[in-house]
Specification:
With 233 residues, the chain is of the alpha/beta class. It is built from 8 helices and 7 strands, in the order H-H-E-E-H-E-H-E-H-E-H-E-H-E-H.
């Protein structure tokens, strides 16, 4: 319990003043680069305070010359902070619409091109989210997506939703699969308090959407590579 509270304390006590200063500063300079770096540093400090250590593998696979779409398996509420702290460049997330209503944080996320996703199956809502994500990619932001849409309780991949693959087909952005290992053990779904320990974050080789004739073929390839990587350990 203490570790979780300490992590949250770091996030709040450092995050609030960072947002109060960073939001007007970012508006003044016309970009969120400095504010994003502050956020990464705060998240890293919070994870360290919680005793969470991260081993990052496969960074050599991440393209450095263009925006990409990161597709990660999802095991725990630890996954997003670990992604933010360790993904190269500035990445925006697709996330629940309600999170955008959090004071200061919601404003900072909107400025950082984070994309709210409505919990509906309406075609218009999906279209708006895809358009916003495409705009973020065209502006140079990476996009991070959990294609399962929710956390897995047993570590096995759940069925993928198709939004990420529509986005890849529309923008041509490479897909970089990301494998998280160990976060489910440190902070399982349904558990209030996290445990300290080591987790792994592995970047797999990028996949070019243009190499696949259909979105379903692209989705099958991504899933196959992620399952193979998960099965290795």
């Amino acid at each position: 319990m203490f570790r979780t509270l300490l992590m949250l304390l770091v996030f709040v006590t450092l995050g609030v003043p960072a947002a109060i200063i960073g939001i007007p500063y970012s508006l003044f300079v016309g970009n969120t680069h400095r504010m994003y770096r502050w956020a990464q540093g705060i998240v890293r400090l919070g994870l360290k305070a919680a005793g969470v250590r991260v081993a990052v593998l496969g960074l050599e696979h991440v393209p450095t010359d263009r925006a990409v779409i990161y597709l990660s398996n999802h095991l725990s509420n630890l996954d997003p902070p670990i992604n933010i702290a360790n993904v190269p460049g500035e990445t925006a997330f697709l996330l629940k619409q309600s999170l955008m209503k959090i004071p200061l944080l919601g404003t900072a996320m909107r400025m950082g091109k984070f994309v709210p996703v409505a919990r509906t199956h309406a075609r218009e809502d999906a279209k708006r989210s895809t358009e916003a994500a495409a705009e973020a990619i065209h502006s140079g932001h990476h996009i991070s997506i959990y294609p399962e849409g929710t956390r897995s309780r047993d570590g096995r991949l759940l069925p993928f939703k198709k939004g990420a693959f529509f986005l890849a087909a529309e923008t041509g952005a490479p897909l970089v699969p990301v494998i998280m290992r160990g976060t489910g053990e440190l902070w399982p779904k349904g558990q209030t308090w996290l445990k300290p320990g080591l987790v792994e974050m592995e970047f797999l080789e990028p996949i070019a959407p243009a190499d696949y004739s259909t979105r379903d073929a692209l989705m099958t390839e991504v899933r196959s590579r992620m399952e193979a990587a998960l099965a290795k350990r």
